[in-house]
Every structure is written in C-alpha cells, then in structure tokens.
C-alpha cells in the first residue's frame, strides 16, 4: 500500500536527486537506485545525506514528507508541502484542546491503551518465562499495571493522570530486562531505567531508535487525516513538539518494545552491534541500524486483526486507522447508540 512505502536512507554521503519524477540515489558518483515518486509516502534520511533542491521541490509538490534524523534517529527537521486537511476538523481539535474535560478523556484513552498493551507484553513474557522467579516477577509487574489502570478513571486532572502514567512506566522499565533472554541480560538491560538524549545503554538505544520510527509514522498518519500533529491532549504543548503524534504513539510503544525484544532474543542484534560514544551515549552501528529498519518494515507488513474491522490489516496501517478514529472522536460524531463517539485505542491481542 502507498501509505506503507517509506524510503529510509542510511548510507552517509549518499546524494539524492530528481530524475524525471523519479528519486535517484547516488553514492560515490555511482547510481544505486531509482524509485518513482508516486511509489513513496515519505523519505527518511539518517545523518549526512545530501539532497538536490529540485528533489525537495518535487517531494513537496507531491505531498511526500521529507524527514531528517540524526544518525541515532533523533528528529532534526521535516519538509512538507502546503498544509492539507479539513480546516473544520482542526478547529474542532483546537476547541477540544481548550476543553478540560474532553482533553482529560482523550488523554486517559491514550494512557489506557499504553498500559493495557504493556500489560499484555508482560503477561506474555510471564507465560513464556524459563524460570519460576521470572514468571513471578513479570506477573507482579502486570498486576501493578492493572492497579494503575484501575486508578485512571479517578484521575481528576492531567497532572494526576501523568503521574499515574509516569509511575507505571518507571516500574515497567525497571523490570523490562526480564523479557530479555537470560544469556543476553548482561549486555541488554536498562541500567538506570529509561534514559534518553542520549540513551545510556544498548536496550535504551534500540528502543529510542524504534520509537522514532513509530513517531514518524504517527505524525504522517495524523497529517493524512487532517489533524494538527502539534496540538495534543496528554503531552503538553511546546514549540517544535508534535504533541498529538506523541499522544497517538503511546499505544504503539509496546509494539516497538516487542520488536526490540525479538531482535535481541533471536540474536539478530548482538552487543557488538552498538557503539559507545564520548560522554556515555550508546547508539546502533550503521549495519545494525539497517537491519533494524528491514525488520521494522517487515513487521509493518504483517497482518493482524483490528477489533473494529472485518478483515486483516497490515500493522503499518494501524496509525492511520487510529488517527481516523481519533478524528471521529474529536469531531464528536455519533456512535451506533447515538452517543458521541469516544476514542478507543488499539489493544494488542
């Protein structure tokens, strides 16, 4: 599907240019690949990639997003064409953002989706645990998340809700290493919990990279349905922050974590695939980064069953489906029973 066609460029000093409505990729003055523009939904460049000005114009004219990330996957910039979408939807979104009760209800839904999916990941890990000790610890963590879920309806404001989510995340990340195979835990564990900017260990580096990929897809999905990715409900508004994309991404974080664990536990990634940098930062080496991108794209093609759809859906289209459901809730469309539609996050089965 067109919406699944993201082109990732990772080879340093590659040169991208426009050639008869085709993106041409060169390296060391040698043509490596041509991709017709109409096959692409976005182009993501990691690190020092060079682009011609005519290509940037061509991408913008055809509504193809150009995203620039640093070599570790951290967002740098995004080039887009004229803003599309329904202005009435965006106005409704801004109005909902000013309504404390509606903002809190949407924020609760995002957090609930994240906690439920995280709990599913822990329970699956408990079922597959190799030792009784690991099974007991993972089951206990899942019970703690269940308690956090029960506390969500009583949250009186966003600060209280964020506090519940933050404490649940702290407890979860404190034990995430239990989902790593025993012989890899020394190399892949969260030494100080979740660390970012920069990641301080291999597992944090891998998670940060995968989160950045999901973040890009969530932002693209929101823009595709006409929502403003900057105006969120759970995440506070800040200049340059795509708050709504961060909101939408919450329920997909466990999918990123599941892929990270699969790559480690199947030994598709090893300790030597990571680089320790000055100042303590850890990042994927270039070849490992390519392997993760291939695995991410393959995972996006996998079919799954969405509870609201009658046919299988590629995982990569989940952000678009959820963005449409979110737009429906923001517009206040009527549900089947006549009540205003509420946002229902995607839940992992």
Order of helices and strands: EEEEEEHEEHHHHHHHEEHEEH
Q: CATH architecture of the largest domain, please? A: Up-down Bundle
Helix content range: 40-55%
Q: What is the count of DSSP helices, taking H or I runs of 4+ residues?
A: 10
Domains (count): 2
CATH class of the largest domain: Mainly Alpha
Mean pLDDT: 86
Number-wise, the strands total 12
- Radius of gyration over all CA atoms, rounded: 21 Å
Order of neighbouring strands in the sheet with most strands: 1-5-7-8
**N-C termini distance:** 24 Å
CATH topology of the largest domain: Four Helix Bundle (Hemerythrin (Met), subunit A)
**Percent range for β-strand residues:** 5-15%
SSE topology:
Elements: E1 6-9, E2 15-18, E3 22-27, E4 30-36, E5 42-46, E6 50-51, H1 53-61, E7 65-69, E8 75-79, H2 87-98, H3 100-128, H4 132-151, H5 158-175, H6 202-225, H7 243-249, H8 253-265, E9 274-276, E10 282-284, H9 286-301, E11 303-305, E12 312-314, H10 318-331
Parallel strand pairs: 1-5, 2-6, 5-7
Antiparallel strand pairs: 2-3, 3-4, 7-8, 9-10, 11-12
Helix pairs in contact: 3-4, 3-5, 3-8, 4-5, 6-7, 6-8, 6-10
